[in-house]
């Protein structure tokens, strides 16, 4: 469940029973392995796949940050499914990495999930091609690749056929880092193990030592963009062609002058602390009530609805930004949308403090990703390059570092919906805003009452 504290849904606290949600308000979709996958690309195309439950095994490859103890110290390290990350850390007795058994010739459906919350990642499997079939639980036009880039909050479903010499092969993920800041440079692994492979510790078995996939360098933006730019919907989609709300959000970091420079929060340069903002508004979570409850109950004073549709001051977003523009304003501002409004948002990264790939996540919606580019978005020339035919649908999309990405959706889900950077530290620094989507006509287009067993904060 994709609840954000202080927003539409209450987070589930540890030890609390699940509560019932009307199905229409559940914002995380799950493609289940039981669903058939059937793609039939162009007759002359190289790809054909007809898979059904009977022949496809489904596995999850969940990348999470977990404490791993080594050399008397405990580090947070990226792991697969919470287990030992593998040979780039010192191995001790009892350490077990995740193993995915596979029969020769078999095809598995692998859902790669980035739950690491602080890092974009590259992922690949030694000697094996991956056929991408879905992202963020929306089908894509299948294509093959040796590496994927996945941001926090994203999922990528790939088909993998065991068509290599029976053996053990590493499946590995490690950072794609775009900011000028320290990051976890460890590699996390699992092994793909052919059932007919010789045992791993066979004495002569040189062939049983797993080999590593080749992954791009930590800052290889070209490889990241080469992957994301290949994503398409399986066929023509109904992306809004007319736009009612043309929004332009500058997203990025900032610095706030500390009143007490000795405070532990004051970790920025020259007596400042790190902040982040959208259109210069650094989002502050409400403390008196959740946004949704305040809205539903008509309680004033919790938020305002004057989030700016464009930056309050225009500047060269990816150039050398004047220090006078580095300090955002702290606020709890929402942007109001009429039910059914056709919305376009250009998310423009800034070079304040550092350019960066910000994985922007919108709750309550899938949106079409219609274009992206480097530098400042040009409203005169860039829209001509938009893909309004078969853009991919996602719920999380990264801004190219020092660039922009454009999305469209129809606001047909009433309520209050958070939009935020999925890098946890940036969210804490205020890289967020929320939409207030008004009710339409009748019960089906209106916010439903909260469930009777909604937990209290
Ligand atoms: Cu961010």
Quick overview of this protein structure:
InterPro entries: Cu-oxidase_2nd (IPR001117), Cu-oxidase_C (IPR011706), Cu-oxidase_fam (IPR045087), Cu_oxidase_CS (IPR033138), Cu_oxidase_Cu_BS (IPR002355), Cupredoxin (IPR008972), CuRO_2_LCC (IPR034285), CuRO_3_LCC (IPR034289). The chain has 457 residues and is mainly beta.
Could you characterize the architecture of this molecule?
Strand 16, helix 2 (291-297) and strand 17 (329-331) form a beta-alpha-beta unit. The protein has 2 domains: 31-228, Cupredoxins -  blue copper proteins (Immunoglobulin-like, Sandwich), CATH 2.60.40.420; 245-445, Cupredoxins -  blue copper proteins (Immunoglobulin-like). It has 457 residues and is mainly β. The protein has 3 helices and 26 strands. Helix content is 5%, strand content 36%. Mean pLDDT is 85; it is low at 7-54. The strands form 6 sheets. A 6-stranded mixed beta sheet has the order 4-3-6-11-8-9, with no helix packed on it. A 6-stranded mixed beta sheet has the order 15-14-19-24-21-22. A 5-stranded mixed beta sheet has the order 5-13-12-7-10. The protein is globular. The structure holds copper (II) ion. Copper (II) ion binds next to loops.
Output the CATH class name of the largest domain: Mainly Beta
- Ligands bound to this protein structure: copper (II) ion
Count of distinct strands: 26
Write down the domain tally.
Answer: 2
The CATH H-level homologous superfamily of the largest domain: Cupredoxins -  blue copper proteins
The share of residues in helices is under 10%
> Which structural class matches the secondary elements?
mainly beta
Global mean pLDDT: 85
Q: CATH fold name of the largest domain, please?
A: Immunoglobulin-like
* Physical arrangement of strands within the biggest beta sheet: 4-3-6-11-8-9
Order of helices and strands: EEEEEEEEEEEEEHEEEHEEEEEEEEEHE
Low-confidence stretches: 7-54
The gross shape turns out to be globular
Name of the CATH architecture of the largest domain: Sandwich
Number of helices: 3
| Spatial separation of the terminal alpha carbons | 17 Å
- Rg over alpha carbons: 23 Å
Instruction: Please indicate the percent range of residues in DSSP E strands (runs of 2 or more).
Output: 35-45%
Largest sheet: 6 strands, mixed
């Amino acid at each position: 469940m994709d609840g954000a504290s202080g927003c539409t849904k209450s987070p589930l606290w540890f030890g609390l029973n699940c509560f019932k949600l009307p199905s229409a308000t559940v914002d995380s979709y799950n493609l289940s392995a039981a669903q058939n996958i059937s793609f039939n690309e162009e007759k002359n195309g190289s790809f054909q796949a007809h898979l059904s439950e009977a022949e496809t095994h489904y596995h999850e490859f969940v990348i999470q940050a977990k404490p791993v103890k080594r050399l008397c110290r405990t580090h947070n390290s990226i792991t697969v499914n919470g287990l030992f990350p593998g040979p780039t850390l010192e191995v001790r007795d009892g350490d077990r990495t995740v193993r995915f058994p596979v029969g020769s010739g078999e095809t598995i459906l692998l859902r790669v999930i980035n739950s690491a919350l602080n890092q974009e990642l590259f992922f690949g499997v030694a000697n094996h091609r991956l056929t991408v079939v879905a992202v963020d639980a929306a089908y894509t036009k299948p294509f093959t690749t040796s590496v994927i880039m996945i941001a926090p909050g994203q999922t990528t479903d790939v088909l993998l056929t065991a068509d290599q010499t029976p053996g053990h092969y590493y499946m590995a993920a490690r950072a794609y880092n775009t900011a000028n800041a320290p990051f976890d440079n460890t590699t996390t692994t699992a092994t793909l193990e052919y059932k007919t492979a010789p045992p791993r510790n066979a004495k002569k078995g040189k062939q049983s030592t797993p080999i590593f996939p080749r992954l791009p360098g930590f800052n290889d933006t070209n490889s990241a963009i080469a992957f994301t730019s290949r994503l398409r919907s399986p066929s023509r989609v109904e992306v809004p062609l007319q736009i009612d709300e043309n929004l332009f959000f500058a997203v990025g970091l900032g610095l706030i002058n500390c009143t007490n420079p000795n405070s532990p929060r004051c970790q920025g340069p020259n007596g400042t602390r790190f902040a982040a903002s959208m259109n210069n508004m650094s989002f502050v979570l409400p403390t008196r009530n959740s946004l949704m409850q305040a809205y539903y109950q008509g309680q004033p004073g919790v938020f305002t609805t004057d989030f700016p549709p464009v930056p309050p001051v225009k500047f060269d977003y990816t150039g050398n930004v004047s220090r006078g523009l580095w300090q955002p304003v702290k606020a709890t501002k929402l942007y109001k949308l009429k039910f059914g409004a056709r919305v376009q948002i250009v998310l423009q990264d800034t070079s304040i403090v550092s350019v960066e790939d910000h994985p922007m996540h919108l709750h309550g919606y899938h949106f079409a990703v219609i274009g992206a580019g480097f530098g400042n978005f040009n409203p005169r020339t860039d829209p001509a390059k938009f893909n309004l035919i078969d853009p991919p649908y996602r719920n999380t999309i990264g801004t190219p570092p020092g660039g922009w990405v454009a999305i469209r959706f129809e606001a047909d889900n009433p309520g209050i919906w958070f939009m935020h950077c999925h890098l946890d530290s940036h969210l804490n620094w205020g890289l967020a805003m929320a939409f207030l989507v008004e009710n339409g006509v009748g019960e089906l287009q209106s916010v439903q009452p909260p469930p009777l067993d909604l937990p209290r904060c």
